[in-house]
Amino acid sequence: MSTVYINSASCISVQDTLKDNFSRDLAPENTVQILKAVEPNYKEFIPPAMIRRMSKTVKMSSVASHYALKEAGIEKPDAIIVGTGMGCSQDSEKFLKNVIDNQEEFLTPTFFIQSTHNTVAGQIALGLQCHAYNFTYVNTSSSLEFSLLDAQLQINDGEAEHVLVGAADEQTDRTMEMYRLNHTIKTEGDLPADYLKSVTNGVIWGEGAGFFVLGKEKTENSYAQLKDIQIINRLDPEKVQEFITHFLDKNNLNNKDIDAVILGFSGDAQSDGYYTQAMDLFEESALLYYKHLSGEFNTASSFSTFMACHILKDQHIPEIMMINNVKKEKIKNILLYNHLAGNDHSLVLLEKA
């Protein structure tokens, strides 16, 4: 496939990533179980009557997509593709509570309609009055990567010139309670978390939304070239290096050609070993991590993709993300490696635009 360009990038996260020069104020958090997104003033973007009916995922996505389209100078994209792991889970919980409280009788369909995973892409399209290709991917931690891959195919096949791609996930009280019970989230006793050398299982959970406009042509605002994506559901730890090496070979690269590697260390001792294996391949590359800034969640890779775009455009790596001391004068190729609890592994290769 031919290269496509990432022409804009917008993110709402537990950092204040909507403001200018946000990288100066990035602050890690390892002392709480759950991290909340820094939300904008939604009234500036969404009519108040609509805000009341929107879940957090829809509100975050509406604003992030607005910023992405504005930066790219696009009013209506030729396609809208969104990835999510949990969808609009707030409305899902409301619907299920309604079922229980009313003993499965006299139910209003509103919460059910708004709880479906494709609500985000649908609401963005309604707001833009965009009747183009509209699709949602629900593939846990590789939801964004599948969305990017679809956008790449749409552009390469001549079906679209400008594609809005995003990913979003929110937190809900019930789900967080269950994650505490099954030890997905770290216990209070395991805090503060050590993201790089953890000896305990579980993660600190986050949330957020990241949106990008992909295009066939390079523009003045272009951040990066999306070179290639590879996804695999299951991977043995001892096969990590082979998985990465094969991916690089396919792109006529070797480990020395990669200037920076962004790894998804989450502080979960049971699954972070995959990243440790990957590190051994890149002794001459800048090694970075990011989930101490975003928390772990199904589409946390949207935050790493956003950060990678800014690193390539600004040619600057925030110190807070660095694992080793390798610094490059020029950053051309960035490799992103992510998984969730040892499943759904993804590799994304970005090159400076």
UniProtKB/TrEMBL annotation:
Q: Which SUPFAM superfamilies match?
A: Thiolase-like
GO BP term (any one): fatty acid biosynthetic process
An annotated GO cellular component of this protein is:
cytosol
Residue ranges of every copy of the Beta-ketoacyl synthase-like N-terminal domain listed in the record: 46-218
User: What Gene3D superfamilies does this protein's entry cite?
Assistant: 3.40.47.10
Alphabetical UniProt keywords:
Transferase
Q: Which InterPro entries match?
A: Beta-ketoacyl_synthase, Ketoacyl_synth_N, Thiolase-like
What is this protein identified as? 3-oxoacyl-ACP synthase
